[in-house]
Design a protein that fits this description.
71 residues; mainly alpha
């Protein structure tokens, strides 16, 4: 994005992941959210989306192990 002079599109992956979570397609949504957090570590929408994914799928959050703690 920087090479082309364009600003990065934050939340694009978050919006796609949110739709996938609503469709219960958790395995497709999770990589989008983790990629968003790697690109934009301070993105609170992505972090909240990942938490919602974990709640909806009945999993415990494991963001520390994935290096996405935001600290």
């Amino acid at each position: 994005a920087e090479r082309s002079g364009r600003l990065p599109l934050t939340d694009l992956r978050v919006l796609a992941a949110d739709a996938l979570v609503h469709l219960r397609r958790f395995d497709e949504a999770e990589p989008l959210l983790t990629a968003e957090l790697r690109a934009f570590p301070a993105n609170q929408r992505a972090r909240a989306g990942l938490q919602a994914l974990y709640r909806a799928s009945g999993r415990r959050p494991d963001t520390q192990a994935r290096g996405l703690s935001g600290q």
